[in-house]
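Give me the fold.
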Amino acid sequence: MRSRPAATLLLLAALLGAAAATGRHLAAPSPTEKLNADRQKQEAAAAAAKQAAAAAAPTKRLRPPCFVPTTWYPYQLCDVSQDATTCGRGYLARSSLAECCAKQRGPLGAFPGGCTDMSKNVTCWVVGSYHPTQTCQPTTDLSICSRNWGRWASEADCCAPGAAHADGCTKSEPCWVATAWYPARACGQVKDDAVCQRGWGAFATEEDCCQPGAAHSEGCGPVADAGVPQS
């Protein structure tokens, strides 16, 4: 029979061995965990390398004059700047109009598609009228289309609520007007906003238009002395 001290030592050794085995089991990563850890290390190294390259890249700070983007919508334009702060800021400032207007690649270009070619027939949309209807109309006036306010690239943009008009453009609706006087008085339908919204001589229905005293003093129908048989 073993002595009590010897038995205690054996038990302690067994416990230590079990703990070491358990520690080794817990510490060993699975293949997926190892793969994820390696990927994270690679991504961190790539990010650090990119950051270091960006920090080492020389910043081009220009003296006036320089060329900077001045309009983004609906046209993309660059113009000259004489401002020392703007030219020396190190970004969105180019030494020539060609560099500023080039398609964006690396240090060149302010816009992905380059500057708008204003030598072409450019059309934009502006306010057409405020009263009695709210409308937009196209224009090819370069001085208007190149400004950075009060013009839109399309009728839909111009007519959107809050653009040219707070509530958007007035929706077009046809109306009825006098279209014939002899040998018979008649009304016809038109879809001209300028006519339908002028405030006189335009009616919502043919019946309204043909009422006596409306479009015709005697209403629609054949003129008595025109030799047209009465209906």
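Residues 62-116 form one domain.
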